[in-house]
Each structure stands twice: as structure tokens, then as C-alpha cells.
């Protein structure tokens, strides 16, 4: 049993209340599936915590004609259910429905997944990078909208003075795919993740997670794809060859796999991803 | 801080650190030791309980998030001196249980799954068990038992609905 501790614990009823507590040093608590494991990692739980689970707008998914707005407190399970069947967002649905295990997915939020700074294997990070998502932060000077690479690359700086409130997706995609490679069939962290999304102009965005410490776009491969006839490789093996030729990743060593292995598997994951995109409706 | 919630149908008030994982309260304060603490990090599922009807790991649930919630543990399904819950009885009848360490969590996960997925296939059942690790059984008898219970459940619903009459 935890020792009796004088911990400040605020249950915020509004975003303003949550931000005020954050500015005073409280750590945001969403589902708690990452934070509660701090003691196992040798890190003490924070002295001040602000829980955001009672803020109604954070658990909403709003699907509009031209965009989708996802509250940062939406769970993986709820996200998968809300976006299932909406063309273009297959990668986000697959990421939400295959990360972790069912019990964790019922609790873990999209905000927690993106804001766990020390977690390189977040499934939603590459999926949202490929889908070109933007995010909204609540700051002292009001809402601030930035693209997802800016969030992922500067989380310590940004989240020190703000909280993540929304994830925004434009509905200009025709198909996307999320290919993950765990060591077992399911239930453990993926060794490498590749997400691809194709927009209405047949431009392909490609993102990679879990290989380097922070997920990122694979821009040299995107350019190589764009140089193909029709702006996209129509044969998965051709995509695999291009991925081998343009592999500029520096894999991280970790308990599940060595860095060289994470890097090595990327071309095969690209092949599977392109095959999945080609199979999607509207691409034949 | 004080947190009040329902635990197996009764009011329960907790006064201490709101970041205490629910599992520690269940086992150490309430002596509800059916819920097992094995990995304490969300991988094994042995600590699964129902919170507002959802099967979730209690090792990663800070009690501060439970104000007003309804928590049910394995003991809430059937006290030791009562008839077992039908799913527990089915596992026993099928000789599916070996050491038993995983079973309280297995039952809590699968019960919620069966309620929400009456038409589940074998693959669906296996997918629902991804977060419940069993080191003894090889899983097949568990899957067989759940598939049989679902088939029985569907048959009962059909008869009750008069579809075959
Ligand atoms: C067993 C297990 C397996 C897992 N497997 C996978 C996997 O395969 N793929 C995968 O992607 N993930 C996996 N995860 C990680 C999981 O996705 C994260 O634990 C989860 O998404 C964190 O969300 P949470 O709501 O529980 O966050 P919390 O634990 O509450 O918070 C996590 C961090 O984010 C911060 N935070 C949360 N919300 C906000 C916000 N709105 N604004 C600012 N900061 C915020 C918190 O302060 C904290 O630092 C796994 C986790 C477990 C326990
Ligand atoms: S003890 Fe909670 S999941 Fe293993
Ligand atoms: S019966 Fe022993 S772990 Fe499942």
C-alpha cells in the first residue's frame, strides 16, 4: 500500500481549471496507465496532480463534413469505435484498436498516448503524422494550434505551460494504413510501426514509430514515391525496394529489439502498407 | 483526500492518497484477494475488475478517479459460500482451470466481453483475451468454454424469443 502522502489532487471540471492547476505545477492525469507505472520505473509519483477525466469536451469526437475533432481525453476504444468505417482514417482506427490490450484501450487516452514523452512506441503518433493531424493546446494566451511534428518534437517545452485539448484531422484522405510489428502476435510494444496515408491528390505521407526515440515522417521516401509514374508505386515490391534504398533511420536499441533490427524491418512493413493501401476502396 | 465509490454493491469510503492503485485497496484494505497483483503494469490482466461495467486493470487505476463509480470484483459475482457464477461454473465443469492465478481476471474480462459480444467468433474471443495471460492452460479450453457458453446463451435467447416455435 502506498505510504500516506499529502498529495494535491484536483479533479478539474473545466479546461481553465485544469490549466490553472498545470501552471501551478500539477501533472495532468488522464487514464493513468502510463503515469501509474512511474514507481516501477524508479520515478516518484508527482506531488500535485490534476485529473482531467471529468471535463466533458475532452471526451468528445465530432465528425464534420470536412474535419474530425477528437478530445484529448478520448480513450483508444472510443476512438476506434467513433472512426471505424470512415474512409481515409483506417490507420488511426487500426492504431487505436491494436495498441496494448483491450483493458488498457478502455482506459488509455489519445492525449496520454501523445504526451508520454519517454514512450517511443506510441501507435497513434505515426498514424496521426501520416494523416496530417494538427493539435490544439490550451495556453495562458488561449488556444494554440500546431502541427503534430511540432508537438512531438517539443513536448517538454510545450506541455510545461499548456494542456493538450484536441486533435484535428482534415477529411482529405482517401485511404490510410497502419502496419505494426510486435514480437508476439499482439499484446506487447511494437518493434517498428509504419503508417501511410494517401490524400485526394494522390500524395502519400509516410510516418515511422518506435524505430527512433520520437516518431517522424519518412520524407525521403515520400519524395521517392512522388517521383514514381502516377505519383505512387503501384507494386508493393517496388515500394519495398524504394524503402531499402532510402532508409535513413537510426534505430534505437531497446529491450524488445536492437536498433539495426528495427531499421531492417522497415522496407517489409512499407511493402505491407502499400499493399493495404492498394486494396483499399477507390485505389484500384 | 476522501473518495467514495460502490464496491460490490456497498458504499465504500477511502481516505488517503488518491494515487493509490485500486488493487492495493482491494487486497490490503478490503481483503478482496481474488483480484491478483502479478505484473502491476497492465500486461497480465490478473487484476481485472469492472468499473462502471468496463473490464479494466485495477493495478493502473488511481483511486482518485473512482469517485461515484461502481466497482465489482470477482467476489462480487459470487461469495465463496454461494453458487458460482455460470461462467465460473462452466470453467470448473470443463476442467479449464489449473493453478487459478489468472482466472479471476480472466472471468472479469470475458464476462464483460460476452455481455457486449453475444455473437462473438473464436477469433473474437481470442482477441478479447490478449490482455489476460495464462501460464498454465494453453488457452484452448478457456476459448472452448466461452464459445459453448455463448452458443448456449444464444439458444436460450432464441427459445425465449419464440423464434423456433
Ligand atoms: C500494458 C501496456 C501496453 C501498452 N502497449 C501499447 C502499444 O502497443 N501501443 C501504444 O501506443 N501504447 C501502448 N501503451 C501505452 C499506452 O498507450 C499509454 O499508457 C496511454 O496511452 C497513456 O494514456 P493515459 O490516458 O493512461 O495517460 P496518463 O498515464 O494519464 O498520462 C500519460 C502522460 O501524458 C500526460 N498527459 C495526459 N493527458 C494529457 C493532456 N491532455 N495534456 C497534457 N499532458 C497530458 C500526463 O501528464 C503523463 O505525463 C501500453 C500501455 C500499457 C500499460
Ligand atoms: S497486475 Fe494488473 S495487469 Fe498485471
Ligand atoms: S491457470 Fe495458472 S495462470 Fe492460468
UniProtKB/TrEMBL annotation, chain A:
The keyword Flavoprotein applies. Gene3D superfamilies: 3.30.465.10, CO dehydrogenase flavoprotein, C-terminal domain (3.30.390.50). Keywords: FAD, Flavoprotein, Oxidoreductase. Residues 1-184 form the FAD-binding PCMH-type domain. SUPFAM superfamilies: CO dehydrogenase flavoprotein C-terminal domain-like, FAD-binding/transporter-associated domain-like. Pfam families: FAD_binding_5 (PF00941). GO terms for molecular function: FAD binding; oxidoreductase activity. PANTHER family: XANTHINE DEHYDROGENASE SUBUNIT C-RELATED. This is FAD binding domain-containing protein.
TrEMBL record, chain B:
One of its GO terms (molecular function) is metal ion binding. InterPro entries: 2Fe-2S-bd, 2Fe-2S-bd_dom_sf, 2Fe-2S_ferredoxin-like_sf, 2Fe-2S_ferredoxin-type, 2Fe2S_fd_BS, Beta-grasp_dom_sf, Diverse_Oxidoreductases. Keywords: 2Fe-2S, Iron, Iron-sulfur, Metal-binding, Oxidoreductase. This is (2Fe-2S)-binding protein. SUPFAM superfamilies: 2Fe-2S ferredoxin-like, CO dehydrogenase ISP C-domain like. The keyword Chloroplast does not apply. The keyword Nucleotide-binding does not apply. It holds the Pfam family Fer2_2. Residues 1-77 form the 2Fe-2S ferredoxin-type domain. It comes from Oryzicola mucosus.
Amino acid at each position: 500500500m502506498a505510504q500516506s502522502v499529502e498529495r494535491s489532487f484536483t479533479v478539474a471540471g473545466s479546461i481553465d481549471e485544469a490549466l490553472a492547476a498545470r501552471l501551478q505545477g500539477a501533472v495532468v492525469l488522464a487514464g493513468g496507465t502510463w503515469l501509474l507505472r512511474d514507481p516501477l520505473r524508479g520515478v516518484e509519483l508527482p506531488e500535485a496532480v490534476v485529473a482531467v477525466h471529468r471535463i466533458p469536451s475532452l471526451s468528445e469526437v465530432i465528425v464534420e463534413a470536412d474535419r474530425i475533432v477528437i478530445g484529448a481525453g478520448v480513450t483508444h476504444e472510443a476512438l476506434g469505435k467513433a472512426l471505424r468505417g470512415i474512409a481515409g482514417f483506417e490507420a488511426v482506427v487500426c492504431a487505436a484498436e491494436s495498441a496494448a490490450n483491450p483493458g488498457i484501450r478502455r482506459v488509455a487516452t489519445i492525449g496520454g498516448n501523445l504526451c508520454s514523452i519517454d514512450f517511443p512506441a506510441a501507435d497513434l503518433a505515426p498514424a496521426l503524422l501520416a494523416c496530417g493531424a494538427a493539435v490544439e493546446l490550451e495556453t495562458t494566451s488561449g488556444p494554440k494550434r500546431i502541427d503534430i511534428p511540432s508537438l512531438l518534437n517539443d513536448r517538454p517545452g510545450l506541455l510545461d505551460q499548456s494542456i493538450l485539448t484536441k486533435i484535428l484531422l482534415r477529411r482529405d484522405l482517401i485511404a490510410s494504413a497502419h502496419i505494426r510489428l510486435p514480437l508476439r502476435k499482439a499484446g506487447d510494444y511494437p518493434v517498428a510501426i509504419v503508417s501511410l496515408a494517401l490524400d485526394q491528390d494522390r500524395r502519400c505521407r509516410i510516418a515511422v514509430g518506435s524505430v527512433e526515440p520520437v516518431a517522424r515522417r519518412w520524407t525521403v521516401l515520400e519524395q521517392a514515391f512522388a517521383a514514381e509514374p502516377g505519383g505512387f508505386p503501384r507494386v508493393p515490391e517496388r515500394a519495398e525496394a524504394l524503402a531499402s534504398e532510402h532508409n535513413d533511420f537510426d534505430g534505437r536499441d531497446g529491450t524488445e529489439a536492437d536498433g539495426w533490427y528495427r531499421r531492417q524491418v522497415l522496407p517489409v512493413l512499407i511493402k505491407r502498407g502499400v499493399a493495404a493501401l492498394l486494396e483499399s476502396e477507390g485505389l484500384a | 483526500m476522501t473518495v467514495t465509490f460502490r464496491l460490490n454493491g456497498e458504499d465504500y469510503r477511502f481516505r488517503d492518497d488518491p494515487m493509490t492503485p485500486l488493487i492495493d485497496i482491494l487486497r490490503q484494505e478490503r481483503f478482496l484477494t481474488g483480484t491478483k497483483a502479478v505484473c502491476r503494469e497492465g500486461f497480465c490482466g490478473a487484476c481485472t475488475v469492472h468499473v462502471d461495467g468496463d473490464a479494466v486493470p485495477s493495478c493502473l487505476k488511481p483511486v482518485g478517479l473512482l469517485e461515484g463509480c461502481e466497482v465489482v470484483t470477482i467476489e462480487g459475482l459470487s461469495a465463496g459460500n454461494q453458487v458460482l457464477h455460470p461462467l465460473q461454473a462452466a470453467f470448473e465443469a470443463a476442467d479449464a482451470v489449473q493453478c487459478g492465478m489468472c482466472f479471476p481476471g480472466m472471468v472479469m474480462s470475458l464476462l464483460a466481453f460476452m455481455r457486449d459480444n453475444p455473437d462473438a467468433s473464436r477469433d473474437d474471443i481470442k482477441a478479447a483475451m490478449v490482455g489476460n495471460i495464462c501460464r498454465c492452460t494453453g488457452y484452448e479450453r478457456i476459448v472452448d468454454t466461452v464459445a459453448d457458453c455463448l452458443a448456449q446463451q444464444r439458444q436460450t435467447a432464441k427459445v425465449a424469443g419464440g423464434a423456433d416455435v
